[in-house]
C-alpha cells in the first residue's frame, strides 16, 4: 500500500489557528486537494493537464455515492492549508475487518508554513472518525519513515506480513484531456427550472390560484416545473393551459427571474421565470377550469389585499412582479426558504 504524506506534524496549533475549521471536503475542494498532493508530496509535480484530469476525477469520487473521503483544514482566507484523503472499498469480512469495508489513506499534506502545528493530526483524526462512523473496520496506508510517527499516534501499527508489489497495466489507459460532458456534469451544481404566467384583471388586480398541495405557499401563479427539452416560455404556456384552460399567445414579456438556493426539502437550486400574460376580462377569469388535484380557488384581489393571505416573501415577490410590469424593468429575485426576496434593480426588460 502506497501512502503519500508530508513530514508529520507535532505540537499544537497557535491559539489563533485552533479555531480554523476542520471539515469534510466535497467536490468543490478537489482542485485544492490535488494541488496540495502534487506540490507537496509527489517527487515531481503533476503537469497542468494531469492536475485538471485528477481534479475532475476526484470531484466525481467526492460526490455523494463516490468512494473518496477527505477532510481539509481551512486557513484564514478559506483556502485549505492541510488535507487528508482516503478511499473506501469493500472486502471479505473477517476477524480483522468484520464490517467488510476498508479505508486506504492516500494523502496527508500540509503547506510548509503551517507544518508542525497539529493540523495534519486534526485532519487525519477527523477523516478516520468519519470513516468509522460509516462502518469502516480496517484502515491501511503506506507511510514514509519520516511520517510514521504521525500514523502510530493515530493507532496504526507496522504490518510486515506482506511484500508490496506493483504491476502497471498493459494498456495505456485514459489520457488527460477534457472530460466527457456526462462526467463533467456530475461535478457541477444541479438546478431545476420552472416558469409561470402572471395575470391581472382589467382593474390591474393580481390573479392567483390557491394550491391544494402547499399549505406554506398557498397562492401561486399558473405555472410549473420545466419538462426535459422545454424552454421557459414553452413551460409557462403549457402549464397555464393545463392549470387554467387558458390559451395564451406568445411571445410574452419577461417580468422576473427568480433564483432559489437549495433549502427545505429540495436538494437543488431552482431557477424560475415569470412572464406577463396581460389582463383577463371577468368572463375569462370565470372561464378558468381548475384541476382539483392542484388548485381549488382563483381570485383577483388588489395588491394590498393579498398581503394577509400570503407569507411575507411570497407577497414581496408578487409586489416585485407588479413593479416590474409597471416600470418596464425586469426583476431579478433571490427567493429563499425564509425571509424576503432580494431585488436587483439593474436588470432591464428585453
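Q: What amino acid sequence fits the structure above?
A:
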Amino acid at each position: 500500500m502506497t501512502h503519500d504524506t508530508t513530514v508529520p506534524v507535532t505540537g499544537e496549533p497557535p491559539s489563533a489557528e485552533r479555531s480554523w475549521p476542520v471539515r469534510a471536503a466535497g467536490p468543490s475542494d478537489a482542485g485544492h486537494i490535488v494541488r496540495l498532493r502534487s506540490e507537496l508530496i509527489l517527487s515531481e509535480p503533476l503537469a497542468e493537464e494531469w492536475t485538471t484530469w485528477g481534479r475532475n476525477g476526484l470531484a466525481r469520487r467526492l460526490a455523494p455515492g463516490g468512494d473518496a473521503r477527505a477532510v481539509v483544514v481551512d486557513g484564514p482566507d478559506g483556502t485549505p492549508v492541510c488535507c487528508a484523503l482516503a478511499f473506501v472499498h469493500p472486502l471479505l469480512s473477517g476477524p480483522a475487518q468484520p464490517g467488510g469495508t476498508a479505508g486506504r489513506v492516500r494523502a496527508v499534506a500540509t503547506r510548509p508554513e503551517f507544518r508542525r502545528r497539529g493540523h495534519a493530526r486534526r485532519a487525519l483524526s477527523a477523516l478516520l472518525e468519519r470513516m468509522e462512523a460509516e462502518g469502516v473496520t480496517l484502515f491501511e496506508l503506506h507511510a514514509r519513515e519520516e511520517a510514521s510517527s504521525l500514523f502510530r499516534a493515530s493507532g496504526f501499527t507496522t504490518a510486515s506480513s506482506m511484500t508490496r508489489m506493483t504491476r502497471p497495466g498493459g494498456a495505456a489507459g485514459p489520457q488527460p484531456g477534457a472530460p466527457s460532458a456526462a462526467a463533467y456534469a456530475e461535478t457541477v451544481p444541479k438546478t431545476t427550472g420552472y416558469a409561470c404566467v402572471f395575470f391581472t384583471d382589467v382593474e390591474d388586480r393580481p390573479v392567483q390560484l390557491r394550491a391544494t398541495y402547499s399549505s406554506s405557499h398557498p397562492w401561486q401563479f399558473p405555472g410549473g416545473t420545466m419538462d426535459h427539452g422545454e424552454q421557459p416560455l414553452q413551460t409557462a404556456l403549457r402549464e397555464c393551459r393545463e392549470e387554467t384552460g387558458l390559451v395564451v399567445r406568445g411571445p410574452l414579456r419577461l417580468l422576473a427571474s427568480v433564483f432559489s438556493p437549495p433549502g427545505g426539502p429540495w436538494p437543488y437550486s431552482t431557477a424560475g421565470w415569470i412572464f406577463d400574460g396581460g389582463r383577463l376580462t371577468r368572463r375569462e377569469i370565470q372561464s378558468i377550469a381548475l384541476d382539483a388535484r392542484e388548485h381549488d380557488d382563483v381570485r383577483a384581489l388588489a395588491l394590498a389585499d393579498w398581503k394577509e393571505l400570503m407569507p411575507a416573501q411570497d407577497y414581496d415577490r408578487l409586489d416585485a412582479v407588479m413593479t416590474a410590469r409597471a416600470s418596464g424593468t425586469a426583476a431579478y429575485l433571490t427567493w429563499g426558504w425564509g425571509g424576503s426576496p432580494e431585488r436587483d434593480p439593474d436588470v432591464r426588460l428585453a
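Q: And what stands out in the fold?
A: The first strand starts at residue 4 and ends at 5.
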